[in-house]
Amino acid sequence: MSYFDNVRQVTPYVPGEQPVVTGDLIKLNTNENPYPPSPKVKDAVEALPIDEMRLYPNTTAAPLAEALAAYHGLRPEQVFVGVGSDDVLATCFLTFFAGKDPVLFPDITYYFYDVWAELYRIPYERIPLDENFRIVPDDYRKKNGGIVIANPNAPTSIGEPMDFIEGIVKDHPDSVVIVDEAYIDYGGETSLPLLQKYKNLVIVRTFSKSRSFAGMRVGYAMADSKLIEALNSVKFSINSYTMNCTAIAYGVASVQDEPYFREMIAKIVKTRDKTAERLASLGFTCLPSQANFLFATHETVPAQEIFTYLKTKNIYVRFFNKPRIDNYLRITIGTDEQMDRLIETLSGMLENR
Amino acid sequence: MSYFDNVRQVTPYVPGEQPVVTGDLIKLNTNENPYPPSPKVKDAVEALPIDEMRLYPNTTAAPLAEALAAYHGLRPEQVFVGVGSDDVLATCFLTFFAGKDPVLFPDITYYFYDVWAELYRIPYERIPLDENFRIVPDDYRKKNGGIVIANPNAPTSIGEPMDFIEGIVKDHPDSVVIVDEAYIDYGGETSLPLLQKYKNLVIVRTFSKSRSFAGMRVGYAMADSKLIEALNSVKFSINSYTMNCTAIAYGVASVQDEPYFREMIAKIVKTRDKTAERLASLGFTCLPSQANFLFATHETVPAQEIFTYLKTKNIYVRFFNKPRIDNYLRITIGTDEQMDRLIETLSGMLENR
Predict the structure, then answer these.
(1) What pTM was estimated for this model as a whole?
(2) Which residues of chain A have pLDDT under 70?
(3) Which residues of A touch B234 (CB under 8 A)?
């Protein structure tokens, strides 16, 4: 017997590398936004009195939940705010999946789903995507303790329309269905209107991508108030105060600058579509993207070789050494200038082979 | 069968009321610091480029872990940083208490310990404090899956010396012993030197009290690197990035201003000791405090009556409607001016009875 015998053994999620961004390093590996947050955030930084830091923040981040509710046309009781969508999703798994039947999600999707299920000892089953990396709703028609769909999916970048999601939600009235809309702002169709009709639907969003707030850790869930109340009960059983005063105040400022938000999204979508064309001319195939990244495979050169080469040129993209996707690269959309350097570097590599 | 059947049912912790501090309201109910954080934090706010918010923060809050390690004479691998000590303690419970034997802690202590044990389905047993609200180490000599001691204890305010803690740590080489030092800076004796000798000891601290950072959500654990590694594995199974860029940068600034830190602590200790004397002259008995609060009972007037009266006068203190302590008030130490008004208000109440 040793004090270490009672220590929980887990295999944690391994996030993308976070090299320090200096000099000519181009970081296209963790789907961050290449543009800074709204200038209104800068104003909020200057407006926050440091004396406020000595007081506990609002337990439910109410000012931010209210701003988000107003933005999405919901009631504040329908919004739960957390420390990035990872915190929100982890809390959803712990709260909504306390049953004995397996929770279902695609075999190729956000890898954290497995990790949370393992940590909280939730039974789960991975349902294979079809050969075109699409979700097959019929395959989910089995006894389950919940369903999780990332839409658009990651790392595939493929989105499905609201009707498609509605089919799944309708098929499973006895399951909580979580739709992870981390990448929805880049051209996907949101399932938000379905919240009017379905009480078993939870939609999760993040500020990390489209709001340039990866460093501020803000995410949220939207659902019927009964599910949000259950989420809050679990949250209050872990940490009464998760959102610090800066995340709340700066988050509100971000939500209130819609023109800037739309402008930055339009820029990235334009850069993405141009980049996909240029990659095609170099012999790459990109899956049809509704996200701020491309999932690309080359006709002759193995993904891992390209990944390694790009790194020597100080360009970081993401490579997953996993079944079915180990010949693909996930490439975050950066600025036009960054994409120019990516394309030039790839051209140089492919010419010299 | 309904989608709600799989939802986890829990009884969450109920934090102290958080009224909006305006006008003449005096908030002495959640042990916040009445003084603002170090002026160096203000400099850090101005120095942080908002462009940094678009990038994911350091996964282990390394700059802050390093600053804390240097401050305490430890190696960075011995420090784990979290979203307030509640996040740190919850992660400790989940990580270190995965065994089948009950985790032991006092019957009167921080009420979150029960809540985490319940949430994570950890067996536990509450060991009664003696009639003077002291911990009896002999009572812990039984089979257990871990031990948690708050030192100084809350809400009693009583601290024990390092030798006392060492006795418990030594008695239980096969258990992880967590010492929650949330209030240690106000005159208690830290158990930090014991980390040199015992690999089963974990010491947890918070920035919420002595560093005036309740609103910033920063806490940390110190232990042997093997336990810290286990904590990080569980943390990486929940949320890769918990500390936002402001908490990291402002936290470092706080740690680097030792003179201000010492000055504010000395002020509060002085105010506390004066307040205890004045309360005694009004017929109160305060337990001997090594914290930034007093635990006080009146010789004739019930605690709940005083609590309710003070609230009508816009002074918030904490009352726990719990066995053994329901005739006590927990009173946070505020500024001298706030304590003057408290004493005047109490005098007025007691005179008019």
Answers:
(1) 0.96
(2) none
(3) 8, 10, 12, 119
